[in-house]
Specification:
Helices cover 28% and strands 20% of the residues. Strands 2-1-3-4-5-6-7-8 form an 8-stranded mixed beta sheet, with helices on both faces. Strands 10-9-11-13-12 form a 5-stranded mixed beta sheet, with helices on both faces. The chain is α+β, with helices and mostly antiparallel strands. The protein is built from 8 helices and 13 strands. Bound molecules: 2,5-anhydro-1,6-di-O-phosphono-D-mannitol and magnesium ion (MG). Magnesium ion binds next to strand 3.
Length: 337
């Protein structure tokens, strides 16, 4: 028997039926994100051609300004979402402040938070990159969104997801009813349901971290990684190391195969006591996804989903993936700091 072909549009619409009071605004917001993802994917797939086509300078052959891919991805997310009436404001990892909806456009009841091109330092080497997004309901009183709409803990997210521009382009999202993955069929330009109800294995066999930072980590983190590398056949160790350096890609592999991704705090650098990754743009959306898939996300001491953000670009240490692995990392950190 062949599987049913389900587009992302149909899937989102079917999920909406669980909420008879839904206006459809949220459904359309997810469509808009999927469309932005297709446009970004098209450009990412041409990344290696930019130089031979003479497109990396300030101007292309038509005399038009050519944007770098991360700028292009950012502009695309903003332009696809600013005029739809579904959002009251946006925040991007690339912009220092909230991005208001222009006065001439209507405002809606959601805010959109995104990292437009995660892992962009990998783009020139033809290594996977991604887009991460998070949706919150507006909680402020005014018509336009305010900072308080963004500074909400992860457990309040209405939806979260990512797009991975890999050997195929995939969009993975949750709106609190499981995690679903769609693969872009470029010939028809549709995201088709390929990974329904993703569940992360309770324990993995991969650990993913930038081990070059080993000497900057706390004792608990160092001991935990030493433990993962120590041989113990009965408990499946040593784990295999896998690190791409694009959070979305490292996370995606571990979500499907099981494992733990870590970006711990840098204990030697007072400027980086909270790690590298951003709570709102990276950690919280992936935490929502991993929890919906049966996994866990922690800063080593508390669940990422429970952290009350204090600023838009706040950073946080991140331990995310299979539940038992994240628990074990936490035990080492509690014991040894
Ligand atoms: P970016 O948003 O500037 O691309 O930085 C985030 C990226 C993540 O995708 C990845 O997990 C991490 O930085 C890699 O950092 P490092 O090079 O320190 O290992
Ligand atoms: Mg990023």
């Amino acid at each position: 028997m062949t599987a049913k072909i389900i587009t992302i549009e149909r899937h989102i619409l079917e999920q909406q039926r669980h909420f008879p009071e839904a206006t459809g605004e949220f459904t359309y917001l997810l469509y808009d994100i999927a469309l932005a993802a297709k446009i970004i994917s098209r450009e990412v797939s041409k990344a290696g051609l930019l130089e031979i086509l003479g497109l990396t300078g300030e101007e292309n052959v038509q005399g038009e300004q050519v944007m770098k891919l991360d700028v292009f991805a950012n502009e695309t997310m903003i332009r696809m979402n600013d005029h739809t009436g579904r959002l009251c404001a946006m925040a991007s990892e690339e912009n220092p402040d909230i991005i208001p909806i222009p006065e001439r456009f209507p405002c809606g009841k959601y805010v959109l938070i995104f990292d437009p091109l995660d892992g962009s330092s990998n783009i020139d080497m033809n290594v996977s990159v991604g887009t991460i997004f998070s949706v919150h309901r507006k909680v402020s009183d005014g018509r336009r969104g305010a900072l308080e709409d963004f500074l909400q803990p992860g457990y309040k997210q209405a939806a979260a997801g990512y797009i991975i521009y890999g050997s195929s382009t995939m969009m993975v999202y949750t709106s609190g009813q499981g995690v679903h993955g769609f693969t872009l069929d470029p010939s028809v330009g549709e995201f088709l349901l390929s990974h329904p109800n993703i569940q992360i294995p309770p324990r993995g066999k991969y650990y993913s971290t930038n081990e070059g930072n080993y000497h900057y980590w706390s004792e608990g983190v160092r001991r935990y990684v030493d433990y993962l590398k120590a041989s113990d056949e009965a408990s499946g160790r040593p784990y295999s190391g896998r690190y791409i350096g694009t959070l979305v890609a490292d996370f995606h592999r571990n979500l499907l195969a099981g494992g733990i991704f870590m970006y711990p705090a840098d204990t030697k650098d007072p400027q980086k006591p909270h790690g590298k990754l951003r709570l709102l743009y990276e950690a919280a959306p992936l935490a929502f996804i991993v929890e919906q898939a049966g996994g866990r996300a922690s800063d080593g001491r508390q669940d990422i989903m429970n952290i009350q953000p204090e600023s838009l670009h706040q950073r946080v240490p991140l331990f995310i993936g299979s539940r038992k692995d994240v628990d074990e990392a936490g035990q080492f950190i509690r014991e040894f700091g």
